[in-house]
């Protein structure tokens, strides 16, 4: 059974207050889960119970996504702004230097948190930021198309499409290798999350010049990449390994861009292997 979503009011010392939605379960060293652009914390539910058997698991809706409201007017969604906000959110939630796991945008944020030494370990699944200019333009074009489609389709049409495997593939086949395995309810919910995300456009705009080029030394880092990732192509994982020589690069066979649904057991094992290296 899914844990009810809660809300925390975060009041950084040098920035306006903001609110984040989160779920937490389990006990032990904290593991924080960060989703990708246009998604929501429910993306992690297939692995939460496995992780919560040995750790406290906190799934966040990033600001402007899922149930988390947009940042206050005038706030930036770029990395230099969002990373300190996440650190403040961790403190508000009582998660001191958690292990952090991220997918796509969340993977990029996880690596930036690792660079800031704000976490104990990093697991980044298909992280953004290791693209060439052409690959970034391709990925952003696909994302804009998904966003436009989610906005254009009336809710009853989405519900009808989600009832069939072919319809679920048309809605989510870009990010899952096995979209037909998703439930109709989950596909409807994530399509709505994409359509209603106030953080989507400003985050995409802020990401136009982003590339991750720094090492993350002296910290357990794993880069996982789905072999069937159609959004951020698997060759970007090799670049990530060259950029972060000490990282472990793991291939996720048969998985797409959001691998937690394609192979929950494999993804949970990769996360726990990394977390166990960073146990204090």
TrEMBL record:
Pfam families: Abhydrolase_6. Keywords: Hydrolase. The keyword Hydrolase applies. SUPFAM superfamilies: alpha/beta-Hydrolases (SSF53474). Residues 31-269 form the AB hydrolase-1 domain. InterPro entries: AB_hydrolase_1, AB_hydrolase_fold. One of its GO terms (molecular function) is hydrolase activity. This is Alpha/beta fold hydrolase. It comes from Streptomyces decoyicus.
């Amino acid at each position: 059974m899914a844990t009810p979503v809660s809300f925390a009011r975060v009041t950084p010392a040098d920035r306006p207050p903001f609110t984040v939605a989160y779920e937490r379960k389990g006990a032990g060293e904290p593991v924080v889960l960060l989703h990708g652009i246009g998604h929501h914390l429910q993306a992690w539910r297939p692995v939460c119970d496995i992780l919560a058997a040995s750790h406290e698991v906190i799934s966040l809706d990033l600001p402007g996504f899922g149930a988390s409201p947009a940042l206050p007017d005038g706030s930036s969604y770029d990395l230099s702004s969002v990373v300190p906000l996440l650190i403040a959110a961790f403190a508000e939630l009582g998660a001191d230097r958690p292990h952090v796991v991220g997918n796509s945008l969340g993977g990029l944020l996880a690596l930036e948190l690792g660079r800031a030494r704000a976490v104990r370990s990093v697991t980044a699944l298909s992280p953004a930021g290791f693209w060439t200019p052409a690959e970034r333009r391709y990925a952003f074009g696909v994302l804009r198309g998904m966003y436009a489609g989610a906005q254009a389709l009336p809710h009853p049409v989405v519900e009808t499409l989600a009832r069939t495997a072919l319809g679920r593939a048309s809605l989510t086949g870009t990010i899952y290798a096995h979209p037909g395995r998703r439930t109709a309810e989950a596909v409807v919910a994530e399509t709505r999350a994409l359509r209603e995300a106030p953080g989507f456009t400003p985050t995409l705009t802020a990401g136009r010049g982003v590339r991750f080029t720094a090492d993350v030394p002296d910290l357990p880092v794993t880069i996982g990449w789905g072999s069937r990732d159609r959004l951020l192509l698997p060759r970007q994982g090799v670049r990530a390994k060259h950029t972060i020589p000490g990282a472990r690069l793991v291939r996720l066979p048969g998985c797409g861009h959001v691998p937690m649904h394609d192979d929950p057991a494999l993804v949970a094992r990769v996360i726990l292997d990394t977390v166990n290296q960073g146990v204090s």
